[in-house]
Amino acid sequence: MTAKQLHVIVSGAGPVGAVTAIALAQRGFRVTLLEASHRIDDSPRASTLHPSTLEYLAQVGILDEVIRQGLVARYFQFWDRDSRTRVAQFDHELLKDDTPYPFVVQTEQHKIVRIGLDKLAQYPDATFRSGVRVLEASQDGEGVSVVTENADTGGRETLQCDYLVACDGGRSALRKHLGVSFDGHTFPERFTVLTTLHDFERSLGCSYRNYLAGSQEWANLFKVSGDDMKGRWRAVFPTRESETDEEALSDAAVMTRLSGVDPSCRLEDVVHRNIYNVHQRVAGKFRVGRIFLAGDSSHLNNPIGGLGLNCGVHDALELAATLELAREGASEHDLDRYDRRRRTLNVQFVQEQTINNKKRLEEKDPAARAARLDELRAIEADPVRQRQFLLRSSLLASVAQARTIA
Ligand SMILES: Cc1cc2nc3c(=O)[nH]c(=O)nc-3n(C[C@H](O)[C@H](O)[C@H](O)COP(=O)(O)OP(=O)(O)OC[C@H]3O[C@@H](n4cnc5c(N)ncnc54)[C@H](O)[C@@H]3O)c2cc1C
After folding, report:
1. Is the minimum distance from the CB of 312 to ligand 1 under 6 angstroms?
2. Does pLDDT of 244 surpass 60?
3. Which of 168, 276, 346 is the best mutation target for the ligand 1 pocket, counting ligand atoms within 8 Å of the beta carbon and taking the most?
4. Ligand 1 pocket mutation pick from 22, 34, 45, 117 by most atoms within 8 angstroms of CB
5. What Cα–Cα distance (Å) separates residue 181 from each residue in 60, 140, 146, 184, 284?
6. Average pLDDT, stretch 13-42?
7. Of 48, 130, 183, 223, which residue has the fewest beta carbons closer than 10 angstroms?
8. Which domains, and CATH codes, for the chain?
């Protein structure tokens, strides 16, 4: 007798939902991916994909296309913004014995969603529905009932599945419906993201990924390829706490910030402006019975270091492995391994690292600032320390640690 094919509903077709759906379809589950919106959100958010995540994207069969539509970055750099000098450069090639992908790929997250949905369409037992918002869910020993609302008609529908995965982002309706806490804090300042055609590689000698520490204000500079593949840069800055969104996005503030990094920047090169609230939060539980949380629905962090989406992709693959265990009759203890691994690693790696990354860049005390920059120089100078630093920044160390959590 063949075993019943299990049905999993995934709520939210962001990058984590798309990758989760493919990983489950690959393993023979029937998958329904529900997305509230009819359009893919292309606002500038994640772009940095670390070596550990590239390994997972290869497993789900989308890495070649992700690389084709992005930029390969072997190095990343730290700069002293005050003196416009490079402090340290880190070389992923030092990880060549640790990963088949000793580099980072800079591909915008909306492209990952597009590529993911194309891949998902190749699986006959996978269905993608847009304009369907998941409102709530109830469960018993047999399965989950999921209540949805049609974005166009407002009509309600109840769908049945064996397991439900909430990939519905930081404001997750399912997390709130389940009453799961989202512990942590929101920073008083917000982050401004300016997209410009100005070429910081040509003007300053930047790599494709740069972290600038400044005594007055920090900045991050990243190159992405853009939908036209012609290349553009994203410059990220903190706002002042008292600054309104309108002030931070005004021409005057935009030019003050960009010219503070490079006086040759021009306003006419700025093609997009955006502002985000920034949080450090982790859900109290990643699993409630047959419902699992993954990606931003279960953890949020500041984007310095580019870890949020990466960690979400790691959740996706761990969850697919967990549901495979469930299909084989796993115990409650086995299913809780998802929570034990993903929640622990998020707190120990992603939260700790992103908070440290932010502190390193925003240090204002001159002696402490000098000590932090000297520390980066010392790490760069010692290949053993540099490799250890890269193992953490690329999340390869977190993957190794996950395997030790039974
Ligand atoms: C400025 C900035 C830069 C960043 N840079 C990086 C980086 O370089 N690297 C990195 O790893 N991370 C980065 N991040 C974080 C990254 O963007 C997020 O971690 C990532 O978007 C999480 O993906 P997700 O699929 O979990 O959630 P989301 O991308 O938020 O997707 C959630 C999806 O669910 C849908 N949805 C919501 N509610 C419902 C519902 N009730 N029913 C159905 N669908 C629903 C939404 O429409 C959306 O499509 C950055 C974030 C910001 C703000």
Report:
1. yes
2. yes
3. 168
4. 45
5. 31, 22, 21, 10, 5
6. 97
7. 183
8. 7-73+105-185+280-362 (3.50.50.60)
